[in-house]
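Supplementary notes for students who missed Thursday's class. We covered one full example, reproduced here. Read the sequence, then the structure, then the short commentary at the end.
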Amino acid sequence: MRTAFLFPGQGAQTVGMGADIAAAFPAAAELFDEANEIVGFDLRKMCFEGPADQLNSTTMSQPAIFVTSAALLEVVRSQPATQRLTPDATAGLSLGEYTALYAAGALSFEDGLRLVTKRGQAMQDAADATEGTMVSILGLDEDKVRQLCDEARGGEVLEPVNFNCPGQIVVSGSLGACERAEQLAPGYGAIKAIRLEVAGAFHTQMMSGAAEALKQALLQTRISMPAPVRTIANITADYYGSIDGIVEGLTRQLTGAILWQKCMERLLADGVEEFYEIGPGRVLTGLMKRISRKTRVTNISDAASLKALLG
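Structure (token representation):
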């Protein structure tokens, strides 16, 4: 039976995440300690205690989610009951793609953490230099969302950027264009248009400054092509086949659309039957219910779910 490990992206963070697993499993506690040494501040305390406004910032949430997901993965890898649970493929939503590449062996823990810390800072800097946001459109198909963007754009930036699952597409762009999209969405039949709590217009050309800064960091990072575990790319819904492809994919992620639904459909078409969401929250578990109702995802997000898995 083919297996895939899935890793969540920004927005999955909650104050207290990782605290119970660090208390219950020494392997997780050691990874949080290692993370503190790498980043040079108390990331562990930020995950465990907050405050929420700081944890929710782009600069903090990205390394925090990466480390919490990696700590959960470390427990799965280190416990005798689950050591044989290994993926045939990995995938991660936006930021989660870094954890997916780490899980596949393409990145070391230190390099992955340094990259997501750099990514969070670069995205915050780009957001500070522009005025943008994102809006989740519920209940419309891709054609209708593109028509909505065409009407609402008004010469500004506005694009559909997160194709999460049927009936859930996120648009991103300038503040004015996003406001117009919110107002016009009901006229296209949308159930809801929800403004997201994000710093800027992620996954659009408004992040081009961040993409350039990230590319330089990627070019200086040691990346390897793992085998036999394959990682699927958000921007193509195809597997990475080269180191250059990984650099290109992670760079383009910042200014291009995330094709999550197509990524999951590709894994299903390739015979993956067992899915594990490893990381804080249940976002990817919920999305899979909308993509393929019959497909079960085992959620590993805290000590209780780990202990259930370990039996």
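Commentary. The radius of gyration is 19 Å. The CA atoms of residues 57 and 199 lie 8 Å apart. If anything here is unclear, bring it to office hours.
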